[in-house]
Amino acid sequence: MALSPLDSVTDFGQFAGLKAQAREQDPAALQKAARQFESLMLQQMLKAMRAATPGDDALGGSEQGSFYRDMFDQQLAVQLSSGKGVGLADMLVRQLRMSQGLGEGGSAVDTSLSSGASIFPLSLRERGRGEGLPAEGVEAPSENASLTRAYGATSPQGRGKTDIDGINPPLALKTDETLSEFRPKTPQEFIDAVLPHAEKAARELGIPARVLVAQAALETGWGKHQIRHADGKASFNLFGIKADKSWDGDRVRTMTHEYEGGRMERQEAKFRSYGSIAESFEDYARFLKSNPRYEQALRHQGSAHQFAAGLQKAGYATDPSYAQKIMRIAYGPTVQAALNQNRQVMA
């Protein structure tokens, strides 16, 4: 088999080229880096196999023979990882692209819902709200300064104002009739449907509207995995609020995944059901304002990351990455593109 210069384990110049590609953010650099990682993993596998084979002295057991054997194994690993390889490189590329907010073709998408930890939308797992879970029973996230660096400080609008992302006046609310089924096919459709209601609730709560959009997206998988009645009718429960004894409205039963004693268990639970998207956002705002557990979260008006961290600290969800996932969506390319498009519509 003929070898190209990049197929040789002794070609160290390839790393300089890879570094240059990475500096220019060339998508091909990601694929090459993944291939090299796959090659290293195969080398370790071959090394372990050699060590587990007693009496392997085909090369005389000399130091020179061992050196040649190691080089042979390294080159073999390079060849095995070329072409389609064993699949590890492709898996790494997909995972890394998702973490960077890129799709399969390199297009910008919001993928914070696609990690392995998010196989189930939060509306079907990890419930802490509406069931009287004591706030002190939930471990608080660390007040990491990186959140401030990544997502910015308190909104310049000040206390009691919201970051409506330059959209003024607010978008017109869509009628319930046009959303009776509410089956958004894309994140853009989901954002278009919920944004006007998110803005209204955000003004009431004093937090950025994009955070409410992001939380609803996280809870429902951009509306594709929302809680539904047995007949398929939408419950419009966009924030995964359970129906406890204090709730006298409509309810919907569904199977959910709960963390009990550090283990995820599947169980049936009752959730609140609404007649529209507007009712869902209105009840969410009331739920937060009337629950002392979320008082601290609402004190950070105008600050997106402190509000999200406050929800997690109060036990809104048991996912330890809940706040970070909200922030990744809120300031990710999907939400930002939708907000930019709405600006153009209002212009």
From TrEMBL:
<dbReference type="GO" id="GO:0071555">
    <property type="term" value="P:cell wall organization"/>
</dbReference>
<keyword id="KW-0961">Cell wall biogenesis/degradation</keyword>
<feature type="domain" description="Mannosyl-glycoprotein endo-beta-N-acetylglucosamidase-like">
    <location>
        <begin position="180"/>
        <end position="340"/>
    </location>
</feature>
<dbReference type="InterPro" id="IPR002901">
    <property type="entry name" value="MGlyc_endo_b_GlcNAc-like_dom"/>
</dbReference>
<comment type="similarity">
    <text>In the N-terminal section; belongs to the FlgJ family.</text>
</comment>
<keyword id="KW-0282">Flagellum</keyword>
<keyword id="KW-0969">Cilium</keyword>
<dbReference type="GO" id="GO:0004040">
    <property type="term" value="F:amidase activity"/>
</dbReference>
<keyword id="KW-0966">Cell projection</keyword>
<dbReference type="InterPro" id="IPR019301">
    <property type="entry name" value="Flagellar_prot_FlgJ_N"/>
</dbReference>
<dbReference type="Pfam" id="PF01832">
    <property type="entry name" value="Glucosaminidase"/>
</dbReference>
<keyword id="KW-0326">Glycosidase</keyword>
<dbReference type="GO" id="GO:0071973">
    <property type="term" value="P:bacterial-type flagellum-dependent cell motility"/>
</dbReference>
<protein>
    <recommendedName>
        <fullName>Peptidoglycan hydrolase FlgJ</fullName>
    </recommendedName>
</protein>
<dbReference type="InterPro" id="IPR023346">
    <property type="entry name" value="Lysozyme-like_dom_sf"/>
</dbReference>
<feature type="region of interest" description="Disordered">
    <location>
        <begin position="128"/>
        <end position="167"/>
    </location>
</feature>
<dbReference type="GO" id="GO:0044780">
    <property type="term" value="P:bacterial-type flagellum assembly"/>
</dbReference>
<keyword id="KW-1005">Bacterial flagellum biogenesis</keyword>
<comment type="function">
    <text>Flagellum-specific muramidase which hydrolyzes the peptidoglycan layer to assemble the rod structure in the periplasmic space.</text>
</comment>
<dbReference type="GO" id="GO:0016798">
    <property type="term" value="F:hydrolase activity, acting on glycosyl bonds"/>
</dbReference>
<dbReference type="InterPro" id="IPR013377">
    <property type="entry name" value="FlgJ"/>
</dbReference>
<keyword id="KW-0574">Periplasm</keyword>
<dbReference type="InterPro" id="IPR051056">
    <property type="entry name" value="Glycosyl_Hydrolase_73"/>
</dbReference>
<dbReference type="GO" id="GO:0042597">
    <property type="term" value="C:periplasmic space"/>
</dbReference>
<dbReference type="Pfam" id="PF10135">
    <property type="entry name" value="Rod-binding"/>
</dbReference>
<comment type="similarity">
    <text>In the C-terminal section; belongs to the glycosyl hydrolase 73 family.</text>
</comment>
<keyword id="KW-0378">Hydrolase</keyword>
